[in-house]
Amino acid sequence: MTIRLPDTDGALRTYEPRTEPLTLNPGTPLTSRTVFSAAHVVADPFADTTPDSPAAVDWDATLAFRRHLWSHGLGVAEAMDTAQRGMGLDWAGAAELIRRSAAEARAVGGRIACGVGTDQLTGGTLAGIRAAYEEQLAVVEEAGAQAVLMASRALASAARGPEDYLEVYGHLLRQATEPVVLHWLGPVFDPALEGYWGSSDLDAATETFLEVVAAHPGKVDGIKVSLLDAGREVGLRRRLPRGVRCYTGDDFDYPELIAGDEQGFSHALLGVFDPLGPLAAEAVRVLDTGDTAGFRALLDPTVALSRHLFQAPTRFYKTGVVFLAWLAGHQSHFTMVGGLQSARSLPHLARAYELADGLGLFPDPKQAEERMRNLLSLYGVNQ
Questions:
Q1: Phi and psi (nearest 5°) for 12?
Q2: Which member of 42, 215, 236, 245 has the lowest number of beta carbons within 10 Å of its beta carbon?
Q3: pTM for this prediction
């Protein structure tokens, strides 16, 4: 049985879907690396909303997906950009997501870290930005989750230079009750974050970032780097104080960064580990045995899919992530908060299906094929 898929030039090509999935069962906890999957939210498809409405979330399906990730030994990075923070999910929705997911994590013994930002603001003064961060930090800490201090659009707009970043982050780190993760999200993911840490010169920005870490020993568990620059990440992690982890957020080069070199390695906090969760966990278990080659053999073939999902404009990778969750049977529909299911073209989605199917990511390949056919028919592609 074959299926016709559209190319970017408008032509249809024939693809033969696989008939058997890759068998990936829940296994032992991961030991050599700390690995978080940034998880997406499942929209309520029956809610009467508009793109400007507050997000309507299907809480049962959203929490079920997190239990799926925990069952494979992964941590969940909650209310991050993968969950459409600032792209459909507002702070009120994120706060509810944090509370519900943290409660679920306690119930099943899952690891969770949650995003702390300033997305209740559209601008403001440094004092207002500090207060917004404080409000969100309190919600995360009260929920019993680890905090990830996310990059702030408001701070990027208001800051006059590196000294403002040092002041704001220093204020937050001094009051954090547990070590946090600092998140450096580059402008490729969010153009509004251009010049973060006080400079568009990445070398200068790196110095400010490292100054924040060094000035607050014991308050920074790790840094999460999402610059899509493997060389810069390696250089940065080699300069971290002892005991501070580097969590890669590089969805282009994660196998080599997690595998590491003679001077160290990166842990992981990745959006692509949403669709790759079981396979990623299996690869890390192989790495736990010291088999780096076996780890790379499992994970290297996934890079083509990840680079496709995260191609420019990178911020719309969430559409492909949710699309694959639908094909994999983790949700009953392909609807996103804010109507973001329209953010990627049919040829883009078709290629994502082909690459994911080739990896064996769909637990039920036949169901995935049928759903792909249904989507194609809505676009007028007759088989």
A1: -100, 140
A2: 215
A3: 0.96
Instruction: Reply yes or no on whether the pLDDT at 331 is more than 90.
Output: yes
Kindly provide the residue ranges of all beta strands, DSSP E only, lying in 249-342, ordered along the sequence. Answer: 267-270
How many residues appear in the chain? 383
Q: What is the C-alpha separation between 226 and 250, in angstroms, rounded?
A: 5
CA-based Rg of the chain, rounded to a whole angstrom?
20
Spell 121-139 as b/e; 16+ CB within 10 A means b.
beebebeebbebbeebbeb
Q: What is the pLDDT of residue 200?
A: 95
State the DSSP code for 89.
B
pLDDT for 224-259, tens place per residue? 999 999 999 999 999 999 999 999 999 999 999 999
| Contact status, residue 287 vs residue 279, Cβ threshold 8 Å | no
User: Residue 26: pLDDT above 90?
Assistant: no
Q: How far apart are CA 286 and CA 338, in angstroms?
A: 39
For residue 261, the SS3 value is strand
- Per-residue pLDDT of 268-322, as tens digits, reads 999 999 999 999 999 999 999 999 999 999 999 999 999 999 999 999 999 999 9
DSSP 143-177: HT-EEEE---HHHHHH--SHHHHHHHHHHHHHH-S
Q: Which residue type sits at 343?
A: A
CA distance 215 to 371: 52
pLDDT of the residue at 52: 85
Contact 145, 78 (CB under 8 A): yes
